[in-house]
Design goal:
By secondary structure, the protein is an all-alpha fold. Helices cover 77% and strands 0% of the residues.
């Protein structure tokens, strides 16, 4: 506990600092005094007002919420399957989102002549709805299968197979679609925190503010699942029901984030390991908030690098998450292993 509180405070301060830096830096430099004035409603430069309110602030809030959601989803999957390599996409839910978007971007253009993705705001809304429906369809299939099979390994393999099947269908749609539609789908698949703005951003933040606290209600069940199915059942836990609730929570988080930001990789897999290494505990009462904060901080760092001055536009978030996160996680895990050997 002595270690937990200072680390939580440091993470909160880091997130606040990173959020401010995200508002300051970009292809257009805005002084910190003007940023503060704009946030307080007194900005006089219309261009800077639009940059802060319509671009940088929505990106920062989206990164915080998406990073926290994906990190919690990864922690839930690793707990349910007791597998350190499990992540938000392990059950094919992200692939289900991609398949839904593929139908909107690729198949609609093939059948109707004009893809829904080219219809401005209507196209963006159609892609978001399709991503959610695709993810929820796969999630419901996984939940139904989880009631039929007993072993976590079997469920894991079935989820991976569903992902492969979705990718196969997407591959066929790509082959049959015009080059312009394929390019639009590939760009969506690179992931971005810049797609959410205005009312969409408000809705996204509200949804995540509801879903993340609900995920925290499963902390007790997740702690018991770590003990093993037999021991947890002896303590009175309904294994199937608890496992299904955790999978649903993880799946909904992935579905919402993917719908608004595209498939963001690596954060959900790596951040839980980072949180465990920093806080040196397996207690989910500590790990859950720690994972949220670590995920939000890492997402802000990645968003900042993707928009650094010198880059025209923004780099793909998925490329940045791997480039930034992989070395950090490798160092943390090696350090943790060396500490265990010394002990």
């Amino acid at each position: 506990m002595k270690r937990t509180f200072p680390l939580i405070v440091i993470l909160l301060i880091s997130i606040a600092v990173l959020a401010v830096v995200n508002l300051l830096l970009g292809s257009v430099r805005i002084p910190i005094g003007d940023v503060c004035s704009i946030l307080l409603g007194g900005g006089s430069n219309e261009i800077w007002n639009n940059i802060v309110w319509k671009s940088r602030l929505p990106q920062a809030l989206t990164a915080i919420m998406a990073g926290a959601g994906l990190a919690v989803s990864g922690l839930q999957m690793q707990t349910v399957f007791r597998n350190p390599l499990a992540g938000p996409s392990v059950l094919g839910i992200s692939n289900g989102s991609a398949l839904g978007v593929a139908f909107v971007v690729l198949l609609s253009g093939r059948l109707g002549g004009v893809a829904l993705s080219r219809l401005g705001y209507l196209g963006d809304a159609a892609m978001s709805v399709a991503a959610i429906l695709g993810a929820l369809a796969v999630m419901l299939l996984i939940v139904w299968i989880s009631q039929k099979v007993k072993g976590n390994v079997t469920l894991l393999i079935i989820g991976v197979m569903i992902g492969y099947l979705a990718n196969a269908i997407i591959g066929v749609l790509k082959f049959l679609s015009p080059e312009e539609d394929v390019k639009a789908f590939v760009v969506w698949g690179l992931g971005s925190f810049s797609r959410v703005s205005g009312d969409e951003m408000i809705l996204f933040v509200v949804l995540m503010c509801v879903l993340l606290p609900l995920a925290c209600l499963l902390v007790k069940s997740m702690n018991l699942l770590l003990l093993g199915d037999r021991y947890a059942a002896n303590l009175g836990l309904n294994i199937r029901w608890s496992r299904m609730l955790v999978i649903i929570s993880s799946g909904v988080l992935v579905a919402i984030v993917t719908a608004y930001c595209g498939p963001i990789m690596f954060i959900g897999l790596a951040v839980p390991h980072l949180a465990r290494a920093l806080f040196r505990t397996s207690d989910h009462r500590i790990l859950m908030p720690a994972t949220m904060l670590c995920g939000a901080a890492l997402a802000l760092v990645c968003n900042l690098i993707a928009r650094m001055p010198g880059f025209e536009g923004a780099l793909p978030v998925n490329s940045v998450t791997a480039l930034v996160g992989a070395p950090v996680i490798a160092v943390v895990l090696f350090k943790r292993r060396n500490d265990e050997v010394q002990e």
